[in-house]
Amino acid sequence: MQSDTLLTMRSITKTFPGVRALDQVEFDLHKGEVHVLVGENGAGKSTLIKILSGAYRMDAGEIVIDNKPVEIRNPRDAADLGIFTIYQEIMLVPPLTVAENIFLGELQTRAGVVDWGEVRRKSRQLLDKLGAPQIPLNAPLKDLGIAQQQLVAIARALRRQTRILIMDEPTSSLTPTEIEQLFNTIRSLKSEGVGIIYISHRLEEIKQIGDRITVMRDGKVIGTLPVREAQKQAIVRMMVGRDVLVEPRACRTQAGEPVLRVEHFSVPGRLHDICLEVKRGEVVGVAGLIGAGRTELARALFGADKGGRGDVYLDGMPVRIRSPYDAITAGMALVPEDRKIQGIVGVLSVQVNLMLAYGNRHYPALINFGEDKRITQEYIDKLSIRTPTAAKRLMELSGGNQQKVVLARWLCMTLKVLILDEVTRGIDVGAKAEIYRFIDDLACAGYGILMISSELPEILTLSDRILVMHQGRITGEFSRQEATQERIMLKAIGGEN
Amino acid sequence: MADSQTKQTGHTRIGTSLPFGRTLGQTLLRQGSAFLGLIILVAIATVLSPSFRNPINLLNVLLQVSMNAFVAMGMTFVIISGGIDLSVGSIVAMTAEIMALLALRGMSWWFAGAIALVSGFAMGALNGFVIHRLKVIPFIVTLATMQVYRGAALLVTNGNYLYNLPPGIEPLGQGHLFGVIPVPPLIVIGVAAIAWFVLAKTKLGRNAYALGGNEEAARLAGINIGLNKVTIYAISGLFCAIAGVVQTSRLMSTYTGLGTGWELDAIAATVMGGTAFSGGQGGVIGTLIGALILGVIRNILTLINANPFIQIIVIGLVVLLAVVVDKVRQRVSVQA
User: Fold this and answer.
1) Mean pLDDT lowest for which of A382-386, B11-15, B143-147?
2) pLDDT in tens, A469-482
3) Beta strands B181-182; B176-177: pairing state
4) Less crowded by CB within 10 Å, the N or C end of chain B?
5) How many angstroms separate the CA atoms of B100 and A443, rounded?
6) How far are the Cα atoms of A143, A169, B88, B195 from residue B85, in angstroms, in the given order?
7) Distance between alpha carbon A173 and the CA centroid of its chain, in Å?
């Protein structure tokens, strides 16, 4: 066993002002192992890997690689030791080509001139090895799908001798097929003796790919155990320190009046003849693969993208929606797909973020600070948003709490239809369960909810009805009773049954 | 991942936080580093030249920074909303000229002044409209209108000075309250109070911060991006017009080159005052402090008879230093 140990981190401690981010953390990694790191947001996983990759320096502790103590002062030290990190947000340069991105910063030169032949040959080799010969070397990275961009990021990590590969939520935006492909890549890296630290929120994946699992909470390691001995409920309990009840449906009023009706709705080239209905108190799940047109549907209905044609009725009244403002006025809300880019204004306070839509609609010219404060406090309490004060900048809160603020932005208004696009993406288990409970509460309170999600268990847990989209069309509809993962997937890939 | 958020816990960026719900005093306190910089600078100035402390000199400094203060406050609105306005100097020239020409043709000063203000507002609004409609970045649009407005100013007067203006408006630029305090700095204070109020207390102000912080998120929250942008650039134009009117009444003449290069001083004052160039953070109180810093540096260099060309270099270096200090301070408080 000793000879197998690639990396040992001992008593790692790191303190930020007011927070002990890591407290005497012990972590090790064997050759050819996938060591899964789980924990709620703020548990210390990112801090740990940032220390390992040279982004932060630890206050105390020791890092040993191949039985030799090493010092990692900056990302270059980490790279020299063969440590590479693939972050959740892919850190590449979108306008540059695939080959340029793979060798960014170390383009091969001959007599001072870039040797493009060599760069292309090596890039091709790396991509072929990753089972991605279809990726064009000359395409700008931004033209590739997220899954392919990720493969490029992995190829980049492998351009040098990689011994330790750190992957931070690599599957968060991948489809099941792409995930399978990624897992194959991981397996082949394992067989070459690369040690992989794998951070994930998706407990289902861990069983498939992980060897050992370490659970962190509040900057401490709670425990490390072999994956095959790890029970899902036990892991969740270790992560949150309590039992999480993901218990859907309490009191939904069955079969209310249709609150949203969409007929023959199209966006040229993207959505074709969409017809759907959401009843009061109903959660309608929208499943499908990335690129099936689910987000396009949400955005076009909400007036965020132009070009939507067709009839939309709210409470039986035809409405014409040309902008988000029209949609809000009609009684619709959208929690967008990408929280950071479309949802929050990170540099502004919790209060301003929460009151953004309400204030814009209801304040004449002056801000009513009394009302602002009262409503903000009410929703901080109602959704148990964990923030020291309402004046805290939103980007300083965890992802789950940020998303709760975005939800609260809409809940404080009197609306009828809520469109949720990947509402729990990148959110830890604890906050996820809370958000599920709100969705349930909202349905009980009479909202019609259209919920887009790439996580089938989430759709199956929460939805009363499930629509499946494929290539811009609705290809299937299931009641809660009929729906299974297999049936949904079949429709999502365009199959018949 | 939240760990990256945890690292920021307990760290507040002094000087650039939001003024919402705070009193004027609290806002002033929050302009920490800029304010501290000003105090240090004043201390240095006092040591370097005894005549700096002379009340007449100090009032003179206030008078000299007034024009930049107007323009920079407008610039602050624009930068907070995530934009930039390079056309400010040209708008100053245009509005000054409009007022002078109308007065020369016999229109009453107050009416001519009002028309100048409206034209400034309109020129700014046009900037905002083009930026929003054509989806061209503000830098390019205002770079173009900087030329267009300057060219128009040249065209109207054929590049000539306008002087021998009829009397009546000079108290605005040349007057003194109680016979001592020059009027323009008082107007600055009045305008600053309004600007502060708009940014801190009104929906328009909040929308400006939201736009600069994340335009897409603001749009999806139902905020009318076009209307707000037009208004924000119009405010910048209006503040330039105020500068144009006050400057004309101070000199009792104007010329087409008025305001050349003022955009740089305005940007410098704004950024030194802690308004983030990336948008979403900052305020006019900081900008006033930034304008004072620039004014004090110029004054002291003049008092010690420094080579005027060296003055330009020093100003450039100080702007750079201010921004670097701010960056370093931010990094230190994050990593500490």
Assistant:
1) B11-15
2) 988 899 999 988 88
3) antiparallel
4) C
5) 66
6) 33, 41, 6, 17
7) 6
**pLDDT score of A1 more than 90:** no
Q: Do B222 and A357 touch (CB under 8 A)?
A: yes
Do residues A230 and A287 both lie within one domain?
no
SS3 A282: coil
Residue in this structure with the two tokens 């809940």, named with its chain if needed = A411
Q: Cα–Cα–Cα angle for A487, A488, A493, nearest 5°?
A: 105
A192: which strand partners? none
Average pLDDT rounded to a whole number, residues A244-267: 73
Please write the tens of the pLDDT for every residue from A279-312.
998 999 999 877 788 999 999 999 999 888 999 9
pLDDT at residue B15, rounded to an integer? 35
Distance of residue A66 Cα from the nearest chain B Cα, in angstroms: 28
CATH classification of the domain holding A217: 3.40.50.300
Round the average pLDDT of chain A to a whole number and report it: 86
Check CB contact of B276 with chain A, cutoff 8 Å.
Answer: yes
Count interface pairs A-B at CB distance under 8 A.
Answer: 158
**Would you say residue A336 lies in a domain?**
yes
Between CA A35 and CA A64 the distance in angstroms is 17
pLDDT band at B5 (very low <50, low <70, confident <90, very high): very low
Coil, strand, or helix at residue A398?
coil
SS3 of chain B: the string is: CCHHHHCCCCCCCCCCCCCCCCCHHHHHHHCHHHHHHHHHHHHHHHHHCHHHCCHHHHHHHHHHHHHHHHHHHHHHHHHHCCCCCCCHHHHHHHHHHHHHHHHHCCCCHHHHHHHHHHHHHHHHHHHHHHHHHHCCCHHHHHHHHHHHHHHHHHHHHCCCCECCCCCCCHHHHHCEECCCEEHHHHHHHHHHHHHHHHHHHEHHHHHHHHHHHCHHHHHHCCCCHHHHHHHHHHHHHHHHHHHHHHHHHHHCCECCCCCCCHHHHHHHHHHHCCCCCCCCCCCHHHHHHHHHHHHHHHHHHHHCCCCHHHHHHHHHHHHHHHHHHHHHHHHHHHHC
Tokens of A319: 């409405």
Question: Domain span at residue A417?
Answer: 258-492
| A220 and A355 belong to one structural domain | no
Share of chain A above pLDDT 90, in %: 36
Element (H, E) at A470: strand A465-470
Chain A contact for B26 (CB, 8 A cutoff): no
DSSP state of A304: S
- pLDDT at position B26 over 50: no
Q: How many domains does chain A have?
A: 2
User: Is A245 part of a structural domain of the chain?
Assistant: no
* Residues B20, A17: C-beta atoms closer than 8 Å: no
Whether residue A313 sits in one domain with residue A199: no
| Domain contains A360 | yes
The reply to whether A122 and A210 lie within a common domain is yes
Classified as helix, coil or strand, A24 is strand
Q: Find out whether A198 and A37 touch, Cβ atoms under 8 Å.
A: yes
Q: Is A251 a domain residue?
A: no
Q: How far is A303 from chain B (nearest CA, A)?
A: 9
Is residue A296 domain-shared with residue A371, that is, in the same domain?
yes
Q: Are residues A266 and A210 in the same domain?
A: no
Chain A residues lying within 8 Å of B2, measured CB to CB: 40-43, 46, 397-400, 428
Domains and CATH numbers, chain B: 54-326 (1.10.3470)
Residues A234 and A272 in one domain: no
For residue B226, what is the nearest residue in chain A, using CA coordinates?
A323
In angstroms, the Cα distances linking B206 to A245, A351, B9, B274 are 39, 11, 24, 18
Respond yes or no on whether ipTM tops 0.95: no
d(CA A48, CA A217): 12
Domain boundary among A213, A240, A267: A240
Q: Do B10 and A343 touch (CB under 8 A)?
A: no
